[in-house]
């Protein structure tokens, strides 16, 4: 009797009104609403979270972005869901950190005119009267293990945090990494050492050079081949290769390896 009942329950239901596949595809479509296709954007500032990552290292990308272009969005539903989860995790962690007594401010907007920079710092802590800036990052298990074992931030994350530290004049910063799988957290401090100061000064000089070339209407030469990274996922790749190649050479931003 029990065996027959189990067999009945595990069979595909008949005459169901819900088409599971159609419903699943509808969810995926809803995730992507307004986030696929081409969206015209005109950047007016450098974004600290982009400068050290992928196409953000390319001077020609920023020149095209400052001109304004149709950005091609290539998100899939899983990618959008992952970003939403990251946003939710930030809000959850900020709420918890507010209870610790350390939090002075969250999501502080920072701006700079030269080079033009705009961004938002996740966390500002008050530790013995000193402001310490922090970034929250949610990452996969293997990446989390690497960050924890090496006590270093990811290369592009280091660029972002150093920019925030330089703009605010902070001597100390930190990464708060959360494991997406287990929700374990690790905190990795960073100080504005002479080496870090030299590095961030180089980053600022590079941004100034790129911005000056754009203001002078110089056509920057393509530094990368279109069939390889970082061009592969660059949102303005099509615009870049439709436009004539330039003669003004600026080398890509060199990212220090941890």
Report on the structure:
This protein has 258 residues and is α+β, with helices and mostly antiparallel strands. It has a single domain (32-242), classed as Lambda Exonuclease, Chain A (Alpha-Beta Complex), CATH 3.90.320. 42% of the residues lie in helices and 22% in strands. The chain has 9 helices and 7 strands. The strands form 2 sheets. The chain has a 5-stranded mixed beta sheet with strand order 3-4-5-6-7, with helices on both faces. Strands 1-2 form a two-stranded antiparallel sheet. β6 (172-179) and β7 (185-191) form a beta hairpin. α4 (59-67) packs across α8 (194-215).
Q: Helix/strand/pairing class, anyone? A: alpha+beta
**Sheet with the most strands, sense and barrel status:** 5 strands, mixed
**How many DSSP-defined strands?**
7
Low-confidence stretches: none
Mean pLDDT: 89
What's the CATH class label?
A: Alpha Beta
Instruction: Give the DSSP E fraction (strand runs of 2 or more residues).
Output: 15-25%
